């Protein structure tokens, strides 16, 4: 068993393996290497296990983070809910794991993080606080409409009485999406991703990345970014302007997103990750979605502890409070330089 790289085997062989693997997600595709390299100047290590016959029998895409403030570590896949190692058998899996541990030691990282759907044992520690919320989509939106209950149907209809409109598309909607998204991130106290990230995704996956935007009086008030792969579509980013939520704009956004997903022929809608029984879990649950356990697996270099790079860490409380008070143009200018270091 040999471990090679994406550069050595080529994108066609890599992606053919991803397409053949039932457990693969969109984030295993080679195109993300270009997206992250272009948008964030990430250093990527895309590893492939090659059999004696020359076939790809496993892959592991990794991104290397190294920053004085946030640390030195490897992640598969950062910025998204899942990634990790795919393999045909234990031999390929062991070859990739051994290789990445040696790579980690060479790079002097504090830890490796693999975002997967099964827990690892041995030298690996596991965080399992999060679940994905998945909804099986009917072929007819009327079936879903009837299933969500009268209260939610009323909430969805409310924006229509205010003259709401909806648009779906790609790059032509990016400015409107980003206007809503960046403002919402500032209001949450979270540094915003660069506009370039979304532009690169849309250019790299023109048939699989979409946006849905809700308007009131021609002003964007709620927006979602969608990424599809095979029969699953997910919503990695969605935002709405808080002052309009009383009108049900966020509910209408999700309804339009679900209708769009059905119209495109997807079978499963991925609402993204949540903490079990938390507020976002309950919001997603009301649409009929069911939890799927996430396992974030960690290899720790000697003397290191599990990382706590998350907004609930008390040491970031003052920074979050201060960020909420920044003028929007300042937050939009500074945010991308910070958030690219946060996986």
What characteristic shape results from the CA principal axes? globular
Judged by helices, strands and strand pairing, the structural class is alpha+beta
According to CATH, what is the class of the largest domain? Alpha Beta
Provide the CATH topology of the largest domain.
Answer: Aminopeptidase
Question: Can you summarize the main beta sheet?
Answer: 8 strands, mixed
Number of helices: 12
Quick synopsis:
The chain has 343 residues and is α+β, with helices and mostly antiparallel strands. The protein is 37% helix and 29% strand. The protein has two domains: 2-127 and 295-307, Aminopeptidase; 132-293, Aminopeptidase.
Describe, in plain words, how this protein is organized in 3D.
- By secondary structure, the chain is an alpha+beta fold.
- The protein has 2 domains: 2-127 and 295-307, Gcn5-related N-acetyltransferase (GNAT) (Aminopeptidase), CATH 3.40.630; 132-293, Gcn5-related N-acetyltransferase (GNAT) (Aminopeptidase).
- Helices cover 37% and strands 29% of the residues.
- The protein has helices spanning 6-9, 11-20, 31-40, 90-107, 141-147, 150-161, 174-188, 195-204, 249-263, 279-285, 317-323, 328-339; strands spanning 2-5, 43-50, 56-67, 71-76, 86-87, 111-116, 124-127, 130-136, 165-169, 209-216, 219-229, 232-240, 268-275, 290-293, 295-300.
- Strands 1, 2, 3, 4, 5, 6, 7 and 15 form an 8-stranded mixed beta sheet that branches.
- α3 runs antiparallel to α8.
- It starts with a strand and ends with a helix.
């Amino acid at each position: 068993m040999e471990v090679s790289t994406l550069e050595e085997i080529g994108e066609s062989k890599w992606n053919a393996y991803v397409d053949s693997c039932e457990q693969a997600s969109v984030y295993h595709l080679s195109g993300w290497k270009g997206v992250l390299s272009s948008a964030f100047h990430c250093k990527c290590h895309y590893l492939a296990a090659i059999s004696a016959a020359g076939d790809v029998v496993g892959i592991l895409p990794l991104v290397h983070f190294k920053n004085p403030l946030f640390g030195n570590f490897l992640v598969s896949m950062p910025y998204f809910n899942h990634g990790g190692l795919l393999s045909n058998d234990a031999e390929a899996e062991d070859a990739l794991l051994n290789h990445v541990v040696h790579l980690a030691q060479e790079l002097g990282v504090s830890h490796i993080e693999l975002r997967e759907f099964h827990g690892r044992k041995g030298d690996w520690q596991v965080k399992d606080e999060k679940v994905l919320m998945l909804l099986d989509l009917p072929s007819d939106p009327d079936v879903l409409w009837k299933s969500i209950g009268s209260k939610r149907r009323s909430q969805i209809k409310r924006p229509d009485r205010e003259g709401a409109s909806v648009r779906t598309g790609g790059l032509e909607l990016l400015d409107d999406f980003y206007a809503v998204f960046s403002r919402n991130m500032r209001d949450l106290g979270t540094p915003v991703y660069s506009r370039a990230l979304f532009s690169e995704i849309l250019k790299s996956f023109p048939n699989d990345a979409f946006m849905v935007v809700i308007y009131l009086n021609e002003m964007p008030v709620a927006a979602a970014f969608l990424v599809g792969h095979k029969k699953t579509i997910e919503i990695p980013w969605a935002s709405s302007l808080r002052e309009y939520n009383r009108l049900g704009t966020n509910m209408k956004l999700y309804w339009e997103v679900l209708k769009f997903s059905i119209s495109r022929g997807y079978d499963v809608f991925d609402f993204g990750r949540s903490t079990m029984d938390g507020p976002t879990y309950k919001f997603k649950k009301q649409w009929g979605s069911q939890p799927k356990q996430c396992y974030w697996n960690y290899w720790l270099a000697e003397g290191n502890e599990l990382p706590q790079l998350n907004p609930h860490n008390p040491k970031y409380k003052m920074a979050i409070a201060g960020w909420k008070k920044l003028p929007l143009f300042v937050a939009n200018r500074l945010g991308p330089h910070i958030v690219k270091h946060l996986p």
